[in-house]
Design a protein that fits this description.
Layout (H helix, E strand, L loop, with lengths): L2 H13 L3 H5 L2 E8 L8 E2 L1 H14 L4 E10 L2 E11 L5 E12 L5 E6 L2 E2 L9
Parallel strand pairs: 1-6
Antiparallel strand pairs: 1-2, 3-4, 4-5, 5-6, 5-7
Length: 126
Amino acid sequence: MTDLDALTKLEAAINSHDANSVAACFSADYVSETPHHPSRNFEGRATVLRNWTAILSRFPNLTARVLRRAITGDEVWSEWAMDGTAGDGTSAGIVGPVIWRTDSNGLVTWARFYLEPATDEPIRPS
């Protein structure tokens, strides 16, 4: 599996609305970094599952799109846009880059997230 295949698999897993499928894209020893919010850093696939279970419960119609992608060395650079509506009608959109690495099995082993809320309007690719 190539790094771009892994990216496509993750996008499809998010859009399947199945937290287990999302978590299956990550290695057991996965490391997540959020430079703008260091207290959100974590390790492990179990936390991926817990986080995505909560996200998909709150936004059951969440849509994720990879707008741009590039590979440099052993890193995948991707720009994401996600939007959805909560059960109370609240709309949410986040956008931004994610930089990540995969192992030889195509599982994400490390990522740096720069995703941030955009507006209450759906994100449209340019």
